Q: What sequence folds into this?
């Protein structure tokens, strides 16, 4: 049995890395093209409350200002999205897409009127999603993952503070809020390994009535009921005519 389970887990782990890796390749290719050709793709970012800025909902997470910006977002995105793909398979793709799109829309609606670029808002959404799953789902797996994320990315909290030069703190804050919403939205879609096991004593069949030494209703009968039963038995005996 173990020989079957181990390859299955290995395949599941490899599958969980595919989407995060493909996204990483995409954003690195985009940035390399921008760097090598001397382009400035910032105009593809989100520009709040302007129709032309809506395209940034799709493209902003793909655009980064420089290599440090790109590297800073690449590692946490890969780790968090792979974690979600592996441990929350049932809702992983839908959750990541929801965080991606709703974070962009929230930035377009509420952020400052400047171009917002980078995948950091999505990263904050993923951090928030994993953390709040531990609160909404309240099982051992989700709580452990929430603690791991807290340990790894507790410093991200500083990123939501306002008035930081050159940082879209609105993307961070709104991404975190969208992560909470997404976690709540999918909280009832429980994974197979999150179901609580029924204790063995609750799984055992109940004793049948005929296994009891005394009739179960013997203590429920009144004195009048027992006298009536005795009279009925005597009447049956007399009517049968079997005297000796």
A:
């Amino acid at each position: 049995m173990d020989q079957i389970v181990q390859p299955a887990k290995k395949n599941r782990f490899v599958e969980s890395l595919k989407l995060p890796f493909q996204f990483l390749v995409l954003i690195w290719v985009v940035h390399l093209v921008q760097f090598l050709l001397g382009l400035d793709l910032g105009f593809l970012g989100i520009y709040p409350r302007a129709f032309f800025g809506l395209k940034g909902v799709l493209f902003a997470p793909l655009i980064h200002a420089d290599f440090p910006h790109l590297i800073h977002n690449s590692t946490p995105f890969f780790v968090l999205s792979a974690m979600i793909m592996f441990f929350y398979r049932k809702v992983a793709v839908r959750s990541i897409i929801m965080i991606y799109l709703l974070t962009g829309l929230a930035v377009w609606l509420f952020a400052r009127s400047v171009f917002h670029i980078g995948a950091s808002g999505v990263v904050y959404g993923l951090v928030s999603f994993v953390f709040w799953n531990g609160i909404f789902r309240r099982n051992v797996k989700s709580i452990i993952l929430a603690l791991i994320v807290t340990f790894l990315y507790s410093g991200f909290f500083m990123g939501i503070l306002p008035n930081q030069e050159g940082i879209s703190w609105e993307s961070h804050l709104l991404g975190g809020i969208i992560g909470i919403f997404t976690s709540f939205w999918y909280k009832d879609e429980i994974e197979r390994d999150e179901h609580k096991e029924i204790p063995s004593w609750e799984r055992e069949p109940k004793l049948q009535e005929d296994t009891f030494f005394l009739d179960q209703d013997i203590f429920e009968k009144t004195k009048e009921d027992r006298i009536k039963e005795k009279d009925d038995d005597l009447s049956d005996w007399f009517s049968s005519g079997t005297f000796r």
Notes: Residues 12-194 form a domain with the Rhomboid-like fold fold (CATH 1.20.1540.10). The two ends are 73 Å apart (CA to CA). The chain has two domains: 12-194, 204-240. The mean pLDDT is 86.
